[in-house]
């Protein structure tokens, strides 16, 4: 199946703008690798969307396919865990990587790019501000699953009642130099405020939702009163409070090197814009390309999992990140929910730390005892996800749906680097869908991410509550 695609100086493998012939785009067999979840990007959407008619769209690109047989050029090893009852079996999977074709011509309106195991020639149309939205027609979109609602107060799993699992909030705050928590009262109950040099955190008894510098994120367990004093679960102290309050460990992004992953592609169209009919896979690609241009201008080394309409499994996206050795993985998506036109806002995800319950659970059981390779980056994951999420909400003015944790996202849990997935808004909401359809809005989203990534690399996180960060010039005005 071929459609209309656009690409310019971007590639799924190798630094953007630096594609030696030996570093062509690559892809693993469609079956992916055993032990790696394949349904995180394909099975989670909310309803089957109707194919859109983009025949009148003036911003598009044409694609002419030329089949070519590619031979394996590289061998990829991937570690996995197989659980058999209480037993864990580690295994290695070797997969031959098929070469595509990629060059980086100087002419800005055309490029040769790999499309799976074939070579394709594309001609793209670009506006002055960067690439315009590209469209791809597909005969049959994939089904999509319902969105997860906000978790109810108290969390998604029963909190341990063992005394040693709970930490006296006031004692911990005083011992770590944050002073005595300031208590106030709201309609929902008592609020406790902790302040550090670059962060101010609000905790509410009985709610898993907390706020840091005005942005919402999910704890594992709701704070509670024990002997009349506020207590927080020990794992939340270690995996949620401390990483945001204490930034003495240095920047969470060690190098200005990133792999950007435009969600979906090929036969996996994702959801669709309820107003314009545009496919999610096209919108994420456009957003990713805008971000790549901004980062390149700031000296970043940029990789992309795809630059055209090609289907990639979660395993393939993880393998590309491993091959690139990028310092950070960022996957871009948009949301939708069947039968709900009011739900709106931005959600950001990183992997759930071991021992904590997830705020997003899908078909597979959420096993708090499971440890994945990406759990080695729990602290950096939270710091990166928080800065990206806060920047997007502030720049766009979109509703804050919170920073959340999930184990069911295969593109995150197998990463050997900090990894974050962003849902940039609900295409099922007509108001939000119209905004996302705007090239200016997508440019503002890309600008927000680029600014936040630069702050992360420089080790200068956003200002705390009471010192609101001022929107950058050119910020999108809703």
Textual characterization of the structure:
By secondary structure, the protein is an alpha+beta fold. About 20% of the residues lie in helices and about 25% in strands. The chain has 8 helices and 22 strands. The chain has a 6-stranded mixed sheet, with helices on both faces. Mean pLDDT is about 75; it is low at about 1-160 and about 465-478.
Q: Average the pLDDT over all residues and give the rounded result.
A: 73
- Order of H and E elements: EEEEEEEEEHEEEEEEEHEHEHEEHEHEHH
Spatial strand arrangement across the major sheet: 18-17-19-22-20-21
Number of helices: 8
Look at the structure and give the CATH class of the domain at 26-138 and 251-458: Alpha Beta
Uncertain regions: pLDDT < 50 for 5+ in a row? 1-158, 463-478
Helix content class: 10-25%
CATH architecture of the domain at 26-138 and 251-458: 3-Layer(aba) Sandwich
Please give the radius of gyration in angstroms.
22 Å
Topology overview:
Blueprint: E1 26-27, E2 62-66, E3 72-84, E4 87-99, E5 110-115, E6 118-123, E7 126-127, E8 130-131, E9 166-168, H1 169-175, E10 182-186, E11 189-195, E12 200-204, E13 209-212, E14 215-218, E15 224-226, E16 229-233, H2 234-245, E17 257-262, H3 280-297, E18 301-304, H4 314-324, E19 328-335, E20 346-351, H5 378-396, E21 400-406, H6 410-413, E22 419-426, H7 430-437, H8 439-458
Helix pairs in contact: 2-5, 3-8, 5-8
